[in-house]
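Hi D.,

Good news: the full-assembly prediction came through. Inputs first.
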Amino acid sequence: MHRVKTLGILLMATLTSQALAQKIVIAHRGASGYLPEHTLEAKSMAYAMGADYIEQDVVMTKDDHLIVLHDITLDRTTDVAEKFPQRARDDGRYYAIDFTLEEVRQLSASEGFRLDNGQKVQGYAERFPLGHSAFSVSTLEEEIELIQGLNESTDRDVGIYPEIKQPEFHRQEGRDISTAVVDVLKRYGYSSKQDKVYLQTFSFEELEIIKTEILPAAGIEVNLIQLLGSPESYPWMFESDGMSKLAAFADGIGPAHPLVIERGSSRSNLRITPLVERAHAAGLQVHPYTYRSDPGQVPQYAEDFDDLLEKHYFQADVDGLFTDFPDQAVNFLRTRRR
Ligand code: CA
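Then the structure:
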């Protein structure tokens, strides 16, 4: 009796530490809470902070290079409007696909900003100041080489987490960005589901093409993540059998975090949706986005950022999460493990 109980406790302890060990931290656009998003500096910092995976958003240039940029336009995070004032489209935006890599390399990257009466105002007031130091936009290959180089020099195995940005837009522009990204992954040795890469997109139609055509044509397999924004995009995914249907194409989901714990939750009434349970039942991993500790970014139902992480990692049982503050999530999981 006593022995059985001890074994049971040991088994539970083992299961718990395994479950903990599997929880991952994904650096959202790098350590973007501290350095301008998607710069190699922000990626190095995320790496040093102990992130398990580092995210790349990927768009294409005019001459078919893959660059790491969140928007399909260069306006929000570079000085393109000053360097190339004549190159906006009719909507006033500067599209990366209209610029060669050589031109993109002339731009200075910065913290994201908006224009207010012609003045640049940064999106997050307390983050890295606008106009300080010098940053640039890099290619997907340069970023992979940075991470793989650090993996060699530090003897760690940090993964990459590329997102195909707006594949339909790229197709309208006559480009197949997914095939280009898959070719790069293959060239850099990511070729099986054991390799440390997750390939993500919001477009289910594109995910289907990647799964059924592009990966087979390249002769490789990688883990695929379906991102979920609003339920209106794909209502079927939120039906009771939605996750099992999705599991034919994806290895996991990346939902906006209010799809996991409802925004209207309170401390006494935490409303955890059925999404994680359904995804797990279908064998899908769950990596929600985006967890931020900037002023005003922690939902009311959490006491502080650590409590937000506790509720999502352990009460809602997500497998990993995207955060702009990878150090805080890494420290939280380390403390939780003790
Ligand atoms: Ca992204």
